[in-house]
Amino acid sequence: MEAPFDWKQTYNQLAPQLVMYARQLVAAKADAEDVVQQAFVRWWRRFPEGDAAHIPLLYAAVRTIALDQRRSDNRRANREAKSDIAVSGENAPVFDPRPEQKETAAIVEKALQALPEDQREVVTLKLWGDLTFNEIAALTGGSINTIAGRYRYALQALHKKLAHLRGDLLGETSSPAINILPFTSPREAMS
Amino acid sequence: MNNDLNDTQLENLLLGLAPAAPSPALAQRVDEELKLDMSWLSTSRRKPHHQPRWLMSAGWAAMGAAAAIAVMSYLPPQQRAEAFASTSTSGSKPVSRAATTLREWEDNQDAGIHRGRSQLAEKRALVVSRELGTWVDPRYGSQLTMDIPSQRQLLMPVSYKSE
């Protein structure tokens, strides 16, 4: 008897966060989706039961494929720059905000983009990927202290970037009408 | 009112922003790729198990060798040596040749003197012998020795000296 083909549930839980993470490593959304497609298919072939314990490996696959793709993209960009062909970029938003969050989302996205890549990667994996510092350290090959430090520096930098909106942001977060967590974390949803 | 945004509030603020959903085409592409996997799995499951090719060749060779031995066992010793030499070589050139043939009598049973159809006296004897044939293939320096038992009835004419 064949195993139930229920990858869609896992995919629906993880795909937005995976694409967001991939977009921290490759610029265009289309490229990020290519990365996620390859990573998810590989991961599902390896773990067809979709066990939540193996989610860090899925992020690791995304990272490996994205870095490979970025290297080949750099080579392609260099070739195209030499031949005066414009590289088409895609500036699709990283977040999918509710109407009242649109302004905040734009500011946060800009603030995230201003972070160094290694800090942005840790913040994305920690907050939206729901990974622990230990898992992020294993994934990126850094020490747990380095990862925790990057996260701390990233939050400090975001504090500064978002300081001028502090009042508005606090107003949003303290409002009981707004659900601050519109989606459950992947592990909670899958467990 | 304290407007400071502490770490927890900042984290909650960030988590409140849901990542953008991927395009529907991505799910479709993943679906197609995984379906390809599943179809491959189902076809490979039904795939019949083929024997290795060398097994069929080896089977035919074994059958040929058995037939050759069966034929040789019905041939007289001289023809047997020739037949072995000719069948064990490829083509028309005989390569293997009979090196030695030893025959030793193991038993001799005297059945006495009788008169045959021509009314001549003849002595009958049953001879049990064992033939040890050796064939050599000079190409490989290989040597084959066969031990062939046989049982034959001998008829020897008997003449009486008239006084």
Structural account:
The complex is a heterodimer of chains A (191) and B (163). Chain A has 191 residues and is mostly helical. Chain A folds into 2 domains: 1-92, Rna Polymerase Sigma Factor, Chain: A; 98-191, Arc Repressor Mutant, subunit A (Orthogonal Bundle), CATH 1.10.10.10. Chain A is 68% helix and 0% strand. Chain A has 9 helices and no strands. In chain A, α3 (55-82) crosses α6 (133-140) and α5 packs across α7. The longest helix of chain A has 28 residues, at 55-82. Chain A is globular. Residues 84-89 and 172-183 of chain A have low confidence and may be disordered. With 163 residues, chain B is α+β, with helices and mostly antiparallel strands. Chain B has a domain at 57-157. Chain B has 4 helices and 3 strands; from the N terminus they run ααααβββ. Chain B has helices at residues 7-15, 24-46, 53-73, 77-87, and strands at 97-115, 121-137, 142-157. Chain B has a 3-stranded antiparallel β-sheet. In chain B, a hairpin with a 5-residue loop joins β1 and β2 (121-137).
Notable features of this structure?
heterodimer, A: 191 residues, mainly alpha, Rna Polymerase Sigma Factor, Chain: A, Arc Repressor Mutant, subunit A, 2 domains, 9 helices, B: 163 residues, alpha+beta, 3-stranded antiparallel β-sheet, 4 helices, 3 strands, rod-shaped
